[in-house]
Specification:
The structure holds 2 protein chains of 2 kinds. Chain A starts with a helix and ends with a strand. Chain A has one domain: Methylamine Dehydrogenase, Chain H. Chain A is mainly beta. Chain A is built from 1 helix and 30 strands. By secondary structure, chain B is α+β, with helices and mostly antiparallel strands. Chain B has a domain of about 110 residues: Cytochrome c-like domain (Cytochrome Bc1 Complex, Chain D, domain 2, Orthogonal Bundle), CATH 1.10.760.10. In chain B, the strands form 9 sheets. Chain B has a 4-stranded antiparallel β-sheet, with no helix packed on it. In chain B, strands 5-6-7-8 form a 4-stranded antiparallel β-sheet, with no helix packed on it. The radius of gyration of chain B is 27 Å and the shape is globular. Chain B starts with a helix and ends with a helix. Chains A and B meet through β13 of A and β12, β15, β16, α13 and α14 of B.
Chain lengths: ~400, ~675
């Protein structure tokens, strides 16, 4: 009997060792995290390009032709820039701003999100009172009453091929521009805590929905399957266990770039490489503030719009733009590390004076193209150029 | 008893029996015919209904026959061959233009619409409107060599200037597909107005124009607007969406050779004024839209009508290579209007906006630019000029013939018989009447004008009532209505006979009523000759999607979301009963307007309902959703206020999937064949 038990114990011990070994390999050998020295991820490598720094800021307000200083979003569309403001859509072209409002056919003057279809060139505009397609000079409006759109509070709109996705106050959904049908997702048919959604992004055949109280909802367009990512800490305002998932269940935006999903919340920023999450906070990284309104990734760089300035990072280093409280100047704060606990030798912080700086520290929208950065703030729109 | 007495008695009994049977029988027959026709003097001819409109397949085959119905055409570069789209026989006919003979018939898809040739003249592309694809034809081999998948209802076609792409106007789904001819894949798709069909690339290859037939949906009372979509050929993006005001049914477009003007056919409907204005010439006008091809170019409208004579249903327009003349087919009156373009230039040159606005309603202006009217056979549709511009070919759709007109003398010099039957059936005669304005006051309009494609025109008319109420009326489709009486929104007409009889002429056409032969014919056509297109967009194979199935369950539900029993008369399925989704009864659904006469509404049929916006009797609902989100608050038109947005979307998806019952039977094979060929 003892012999028998001994054999059994040995057998179970051997199994346990194998399982442990496999598990350990799973935690180490397959680790794709940016800070892992043996990371196999193609994007964020040790030889990552230095973070771009933008300067030569030029700020635009109502004095320059904007309909309102309260800017909610900005999108670069070739030679023109589209900005959503509290009082209409502002278009910057040939050095001049032109405004479009409900009088021109928009469903609402509060423009909070803009995207441009790469396929057709049509501009899709999310407003506080419906969705609008601006095409050939004409606005065509979609509302919760005249279409299958989930709700008129359109916080975010993106184009993904022939589909137009929206995140609204009553759920997320997509409009198939070929069949002209809506498919919508709420807590009734998707793993959402409630229908309120703030952000949506696309990448790698997936849609990422920032759902209020529901973390991130991943939707694979091919299989039409959902997967949700929530914070194991629930709605605790501190991240009890670092890097265990999204930093909070209340998420404000998602964006995908170069193999990484970035998720913003009012409690910090996090990234996900398909295997591991990593959190970034104002106390342990170069992040300007944990209160993040919006994020947009452009390749390996993510732009983070917070209530205390604009931060940019590639996960390895940071540049944060801040305006002085008492004048129009400010600075770019450059940090050569991703997080205080990473293995970067000689962590440094450098401040580059900017005169003028961005027009306000409350940032709600950002876009970058061809070395030009446009920033929507609560007091004007700023344009910066890449400093060579 | 003597034999003679016996015979006399027998004869007497037979006569007596005959009299007994005859008089009540006659009376019954008279009563039957009277009830069907709403008149008391319609001849007692059983054939009127029981032969020409018979559902019996054998009888139907005996009394009807097949036609080609030529629609659109193309001509070879050397002018030797004409390529004719035969809409009813689903063929492309190859015609030797010199010998005036059909030399080949190439089978294409369902209900072909347009044919174009490639730059080398070796390939033809035919859009198959009811198959959602394009047949690619090798002209040397006279063979379909490929099929390209398109959007819903492909109609107008155009090749890109480099010949690498084909632009396809999707008439049912209102879009433009850009198909890469090297990969045979759809590269992208744009939205384009409402029910677009015509398209033409500018001579400089920079702009592609796409015309809309239906006006953009707008509340009754707003100025009508139809979209002319302008695609930048270089960027393959929509450059402009121009609003053409007060016009619709812009079927086709042609550029002047210099490219400075684009001319479109159009109708100017007067649907916002009471229909009693027919006598004053205020029902429909017909003419051209002139679009100046320059920055901030003007959009000008000129009528081709004359005082007391209208030239209804303009369809196609072509311009001679020298840019001097334009030819327009006026399908409703069987004429070609010849337009002097220099005169048009003179009229619009320097004219003030006010003057041009006045011209757009002026029946006298046409005398200044219409050079001649050339009589044609029944229902002239597509036009094509010979490469040298000396000959104009006219597709006489209901004649099965091509007319050949000398563009110098402006005389018809020949006709090309397509070789079909010369027998005109009753239903064919009915179709001719349906498409001809000869029965309306001063030829102002015909059935087809408000029921293009035998469907409806998407407009709401002010059908003034006898009590001078407004009675706004949303035009209803005529597709497969034989089993859905009564007719009209108020359900007053139990039969098509009654609908199209005396009252019709009194209320609408303001002319002599149809004689009974004509009434028999038009009824025969409406009841037997009009079919639904397949619903390839939302229900191609009869298999409902999960969302549509959920919507079907809502449509058929007996309890609301809280478990409360929905009263039987407030369930969708009660009034909208399959297969036509009408119980043929009147109902009050809480939509009666203050200006309407007091009435209930005939429950409308719902098949292919996605093609019939706006909705409700007065068109107040721009979309299916609005029926409940905006106009269903009282819950008299079904119980809907308990539904979630997802449920409403499912219900709408199900409604969009409804299709003609015949596609679930034998004809479904045709639909499936179309799909397979994709």
């Amino acid at each position: 009997m003892r012999k028998l038990i001994g054999r059994s114990q040995r057998k179970y011990s051997a199994i346990a060792v194998i399982v442990f070994g496999i598990s350990s390999f799973g935690f180490t050998g397959l680790d794709k995290h940016p800070d892992s020295k043996d990371s196999k991820v193609k994007v964020i490598k040790d030889e990552v390009k230095p973070m771009p720094v933008y300067g030569h800021w030029r700020n635009f307000t109502t004095k320059d032709g904007l309909p309102s200083d309260k800017a909610y979003c900005v999108r670069i569309d070739g030679d023109r820039v589209l900005a959503g403001t509290h009082d209409g859509l502002a278009v910057y072209e040939n050095g001049k701003w032109k405004t479009y409002t409900t009088k021109d056919g928009l469903p609402h003057n509060g423009i909070v999100s803009i995207d441009v279809s790469e396929l057709t060139g049509d501009v899709w505009i999310g407003t506080l009172g419906g969705l609008s397609r601006w095409s050939g000079g004409k606005f065509e409006n979609f509302s919760q009453l005249n279409s299958g759109m989930p709700n008129d509070l359109v916080y975010c709109v993106i184009c993904d091929g022939k589909d137009v996705w929206v995140a609204t106050g009553g759920g997320a959904g997509h409009y198939d521009t070929y069949t002209k049908e809506w498919e919508i997702f709420t807590e009734k048919n998707a793993p959402m805590h409630e229908p309120w959604t703030y952000g949506v992004s696309a990448g790698d055949g997936k849609i990422y929905i920032a759902a209020w109280g529901g973390g991130v909802i991943e939707y694979t367009t091919k299989t039409k399957k959902f997967k949700d990512y929530t914070d194991p800490d629930g709605e605790m305002e501190i991240d009890l266990l670092p890097d265990d998932g999204p930093v909070h269940d209340i998420t404000t935006g998602t964006t995908w770039g170069d193999g990484y999903l970035w998720v913003s919340s009012y409690f910090g920023l996090c990234s996900y490489d398909g295997a591991h999450w990593k959190g970034y906070f104002d106390h342990d990284s170069g992040l300007a503030s944990n209160f993040i309104n919006f994020v947009r990734a452009k390749g390996p760089v993510v732009f983070i719009c917070s209530d205390k300035g604009l931060s940019t990072t590639n996960g390895k280093s940071w540049v944060t733009y801040k305006k002085n409280d008492n004048n129009s100047d400010g600075m770019a704060i450059v940090k050569n590390y991703g997080r205080i606990d990473d293995s970067t030798p000689n962590k440094t912080t450098k401040e580059i004076p900017m005169s003028p700086s961005i027009s306000h520290n409350f940032i709600i929208g950002v876009d970058e193209d061809k070395d030009v950065l446009w920033v929507a703030t609560s007091s004007g729109i700023s344009r910066g150029e890449l400093l060579k | 008893m003597k034999t003679s007495y016996k015979l006399l008695l027998t004869f007497g009994i037979i006569v007596a029996l005959g009299l007994i049977i005859h008089f009540p029988g006659y009376k019954l027959a008279r009563a039957h015919v009277n009830s069907k026709t709403a008149v008391e003097d319609h001849p007692l001819l059983c054939t009127s209904c029981h032969l020409y409109t018979s559902k019996n397949k054998l009888l139907s085959k005996l009394v009807n026959t097949d036609y080609f119905s030529p629609f659109n055409m193309a001509v070879s570069k050397d002018g030797s061959n004409l390529y004719v789209v035969a809409q009813e026989s689903n063929e492309l006919l190859v015609v030797d233009s010199k010998n005036r003979k059909v030399t080949n018939k190439i089978k294409v898809g369902e209900y072909p619409h347009t044919v174009i040739l490639d730059n080398a003249g070796k390939m033809a592309y035919v859009s198959n409107q009811w198959s959602d694809n394009i047949s690619v034809i090798d002209l040397a081999a006279s063979k379909v060599i490929d099929t390209l998948k398109t959007g819903n209802g492909p109609a107008g076609l155009s090749l890109s200037s480099d010949g690498k792409y084909i632009y396809v106007v999707n008439s049912f789904s209102s879009g433009i597909s850009v198909i890469d001819l090297s990969t045979k894949e759809e590269k992208k798709r744009f939205d384009a107005g409402n029910n677009p069909t015509g398209t033409q690339l500018s001579p400089d290859g920079k702009s592609l124009l796409v015309t809309s037939r239906r006006a953009l949906i707008a509340p009754y009372g707003d100025t009508l607007k139809s979209e002319l979509t302008v695609i930048d050929e270089n960027t393959q993006r929509v450059r402009e969406r121009l609003n053409v005001k007060s016009a619709y049914m812009m079927e086709n477009v042609a550029f002047t050779p210099a490219g400075d003007l684009a001319l479109l056919t159009m109708i100017r409907p007067k649907n916002l004024v009471p229909s009693i204005q027919v006598e004053q010439g205020w029902m429909m006008n017909y003419g051209i839209v002139i679009v100046e091809q320059k920055e901030k170019g003007r959009i000008i409208q000129l009528l081709v009508d004359e005082p007391n004579a209208y030239y209804s249903d303009p369809f196609d327009i072509v311009i001679t290579p020298d840019g001097k003349k334009a030819f327009m087919s006026n399908s409703g009156v069987n004429f070609i209007s010849v337009i002097n373009i220099d005169s048009v230039r003179a009229i619009i040159s320097g004219a003030s906006p006010e003057l041009l606005s006045e011209y757009s309603n002026n029946l006298g202006v046409s005398s200044r630019f219409v050079m001649k009217r050339i009589k044609t056979g029944a229902d002239p549709k597509g036009l094509v000029l010979s490469p040298d511009g000396k000959l104009l070919y006219v597709a006489e759709q209901l004649e099965d013939r091509i007319a050949v007109i000398n563009t110098e003398t402006l005389e018809t010099i020949n006709t090309i018989d397509l070789g079909g039957t010369h027998r005109i059936t009753v239903a064919r005669q009915g179709r001719r009447l349906f498409n001809n304005s000869g029965h309306t006051f001063q030829n102002q309009f015909d059935c087809y004008t408000c029921h293009p494609d035998n469907h409806e025109d998407g407009l709401v008319y002010n059908m003034a009532s006898k009590d001078m109420g407004r009675n706004l009326t949303n035009t209803q489709s005529l597709r497969e209505i034989r089993d859905t009486p009564p007719f009209k929104w108020n359900g007053k007409n139990q039969t098509v006979y009654k609908q199209d009889g005396m009252r019709f002429s009194t209320v609408l056409t303001r002319s002599e009523a149809f004689n009974y032969d004509d009434l028999d014919a038009i009824t025969a056509y409406i009841l037997t000759g009009i079919k639904y297109p397949p619903n390839l967009q939302y229900n191609a194979n009869g298999i409902l999607t999960p969302g549509e199935l959920r919507g079907k369950a809502i449509f058929e539900r007996t309890k609301d979301n809280l478990g409360n029993i929905i009263p039987e008369n407030n369930r969708c399925i009660t009034c909208h009963t399959p297969p036509f989704f009408t119980n043929l009864k009147l109902a009050s659904v809480g939509t009666l307007a203050l200006t309407d006469d007091s009435m209930k509404f005939d429950t409308p049929h719902l098949n292919n309902i996605f093609q019939s916006p706006p909705y409700l009797h007065d068109g107040r609902a721009a979309t299916l959703e609005e029926i409940w989100t905006k106009y269903g608050k009282e819950e008299k038109h079904g119980v809907a206020n308990d539904m979630t947005k997802n449920q409403l979307n499912d219900l709408v998806d199900y409604l969009k999937s409804l299709r003609a019952p015949r596609y679930d039977g034998k004809d479904s094979k045709k639909q499936k064949t179309s799909l397979k060929s994709n």
